[in-house]
Amino acid sequence: MSCDHCKVLGFGSPILDMLAQVDDSFLSAHVEGEKGGMVMLDTAAQGKLLDALSGSSITSAIGGSAFNTISALTALQMPTAFLGKIGKDERGEYFSSAYTEKGGDASRLLCGSEEPTATCISLVTPDSERTMRSHLGAASTVTADEITDQAFEGITHFHAEGYTLFLPGCLRKSLELARKHGCTTSLDLASFEVVRLFRSEILDMLKNGLLDIVFANEDEAREFCGDRIEFTPENVASFLLQYCKVAAVKLGKKGAVICEGSEKAEISPRLVKAIDTTGAGDLWQAGFLYGYLSGCGIAKAGEMGSVLGAEIVQVLGAQIPAGRWDFIQSEFNKIKG
Asked: Which end of the chain is more exposed for a tag (fewer CB within 10 A), N or C?
């Protein structure tokens, strides 16, 4: 089964990830807001947090929510491109060249001269949960006018992260252009904070038929539904299916529930010893999109998602070591049958 006919465009914030392992007392002393999820910081606040981490071991890697998904698809040899803005700085040059070296198409990357390339501090506690505090820099300056038809040339599927809702008008325009160019589309709801702030916008895009696939984890699904329906993964999926083709509710250690039309697939997790959940949802989505866009159907695609989700939680950060991809491909071949 080939995916050569596909080319996936990701849209999100190109970010330099900075990962550190901390305990809960560090979060209580130095991090405002709830544990887990993602909160935006300004330059001063992020600098203060980095000062508090001085002396800690920090691992850096190129990333960002949608980029983690796209990077994994690239490693799986699916053609990809990425839309987002980097700074005119060393970090931006590194991001572009590193993605190109992976085999990705960096020609859709925008470059801004005023703000630095985005960074995200990901604080990983002993329970493997990550609390992210980001400064988006150049990534936060994308305007709808910068998103043009050219970005969608040759693209067959468009995948966006919910964080792009912080860029006024950009996600809506991107989805409309994707439809204009005949692309299928998917959206990762990103975090419960995003859903809390932008629920009406997300619902409007759903009602206007701009989304084919919606990914939500349990917290995001609860926030989206509130007290409107009795919360179960199946109820959430059924609610979303009023407006989209595929609804995937990710349940972490409990697996996932995926619905398409009248078909429902309950996906079992691959239980492993987790040391860091950074990127787990992003990589699960990559496995699912790889399988689904290759024509495998929701059940087999969900199993592929579980393979990548299990792989990524065993390492620090959101990049699977290069030596593991042959094993992953062999697992995918078993699932394809």
From this structure: C
